[in-house]
Amino acid sequence: xxxxxxxxxxxxxxxxxxxxxxxxxxxxxxxxxxxxxxxxxxxxxxxxxxxxxxxxxxxxxxxxxxxxxxxxxxxxxxxxxxxxxxxxxxxxxxxxxxxxxxxxxxxxxxxxxxxxxxxxxxxxxxxxxxxxxxxxxxxxxxxxxxxxxxxxxxxxxxxxxx
Length: 162
Description:
Blueprint: H1 2-11, H2 35-49, E1 59-63, H3 65-74, E2 82-86, E3 102-108, H4 116-125, E4 130-134, H5 145-159
Parallel strand pairs: 1-2, 2-3, 3-4
Helix pairs in contact: 1-5, 2-3
């Protein structure tokens, strides 16, 4: 899912950076219950920004636990243009108040971690939210990557050209 989102963003001409949080895959460190992972994201953002035009648009997109970390960091980022949250685990974690940006919210109708009513409630608190519900998709979007990719494509087109 994350690979597909990055592919679509690149196809639209947006620079991307995919990374693992500490302790995931081949990365060093151990899971830090969200605090350390926010540091990881801020470090990744600084690295990516060092390769981009300083005044250009900048969006963040996260999936599942990464969506929670992304939402946590986005609230303190004044230069952020857009925020994308795919399958945010709303049944497990508090997402609080999201920034009023071009927010994309994506979930599947069969996602126990991100129930559609909870996603719609979050969208109601976020005036700029675009909600995409993928029929029949579970938390991992098996067999449903195309509609997720198209949602990401539309979202990127909405903010990246600014």
